[in-house]
Amino acid sequence: MSTQPSAAHNDAHDNEQSSLFAIFKIFFGLGWVSFGGPAAHIGYFRNTFVEKLGWLSDEEYAQIVA
What b/e readout covers 52-61, taking b as 16+ CB neighbours within 10 angstroms? Predict the structure, then answer.
């Protein structure tokens, strides 16, 4: 019996780490260039998460920031 993780397990772990790094980069970039206080941040976040990335709909974003 092998104690080595399977190739599928390694691929899933690599994908998870690359996804987490991608999310980190997005939030780091937003934090780095977001000037103007909370009102400006809401606009930057909406532009990124709704328009550019499509992670949320306008309705979902409105519920999150409400």
Answer: eeeebeeeeb
